[in-house]
Write the structure tokens for this entry.
Amino acid sequence: MSGGEYLAAAYAVVFAVVLGYVAIIAAKLQRLQRETRKLLELARAQPGEERRSAVYAGGVSEATASEEPPSA
Amino acid sequence: MTYLAAVAALTQKDLRVELRARETLPALLLFVLSTLVVFHFALPEGAGEGAAYGLLWVAIVFTALLGLARAWVPEQEHRVLDGLVLAPCDRSAIWLGKTLAVLAFLLAAQAVALPAFALFFAPLDGAALAGVLLADLGICAVGSLMSAMAAAGRARELLLPLLVLPLAIPLVVGGVGSAVAPEPDRHLLFLVLYDGLFGVLSWASFEYVVTE
Amino acid sequence: MTASLRSLPGLALLAAVGMGAALVLALLVAPEDADQGVSQRIFYIHVPVALTAYLCFGLGAWKALRLLWTGEQRYDLESYVAIHQGTIFGLLTLVTGSIWAKASWGVWWTWSSNQLVLFLVLVLFYCAYFMLRFSLEEGPRRARSSAVYALFGVVLIPVSFLAIRLAEDFIHPTVFTREGPQMTGTMFAAFCAAWAAVTLLAYVLYRVELAGKRLDADLRELREALQ
């Protein structure tokens, strides 16, 4: 190999490693995105905190309502 | 209880445990002697004394690793460390006590191994012995901290050599240099510097790795 | 955190432009070295990458010190990410240094290049850092153990450097020498530009990875809160 080829190899290695690193970060971001979506679905599936406390405050006795942690 | 009394009590505890159980010291002795025999067959004919000194240092480092791997096992098995951490003394005393105990085991093993080395391979002069002593200090100081760190992990036997070996490379340089270099003073001075630096660092940071 | 992330796209752009400019300066503008010829230009990537690795290790140790000092857990991730960056740049230093050694001396590895040997020791040391981290259970104790190990790292750098210099006493004396800083003005300018660009690039990557890691931690907490 000539000097020029070694030179190209050195710069290419740095470029490739940085590129690979960015690709890994991108893959992680995708995973985080999926995770966020799952959590969002989970949050939507659960009855809202406000609704629950509204039910307690409306109908049930004082004692039950005070068991509920303060949501606001 | 003063600091030194606490350290002395902790060292004594380790030595007494060893005297009763006789687990570590015989293993260290047998290991270092077997290693020397292996070296005889590993060294090609005419490899010279220089190579033998190098291998002596491999033996010393690995013997120390063997001793260090066992260092916190009694504490781990009986959950003594949690109690020691709560004791009303400075936590660095626990580190110092352990360092001295491991150093005592290592020196005892070397009291046999070094004469054996001189008999089998090559003579050791005063500077070489001073190098061994100083490097022992350094590797025990750093190693007992690293061993405490590794002991909390899942793969402690596997982890300890990985943690200690890169840190032991300067010690090997200083140790081999004090045995073979034309002017060993610089190497001994370097070992003193290493011991001072890493001794203070280990002493100061031990508290952080054992408290929850 | 959102406020600090706002500067990130601008910084990333600046890093990209800086890398481009540094490449032009290093590969086209800087004059060819009389002795080594074209392969001397590896210098403009090898040395900045090495200096950046030191910087990352230093940053990691500084964050580790802050963690031990203040006990604030956010420094744990910052220290970890900085050391992660440093290890990647350290590996790059080894690879580019090895290529340079082959180009100028005809061997892929030489123990007489102190810089390469030092980086080998450091990369081994910091790889053990990750082993330690993955072996311990997550929590304040792992954070403190990692921090202590990171602090040992910055002390080990000068000590190892000294040791490797001392080892020349009895391991074969230096045969190869790389000419010292006999750089012309343009060469020095190209080197400085490359150094600044690589440092900026490392900083941007550090911030991006840190943001991702924090997001990950937050999401995990959120999941626990929802379940």
Chain B has nine helices and no strands. The mean pLDDT of chain B is 90. The CA atoms of residues 27 and 131 of chain B lie 24 Å apart.
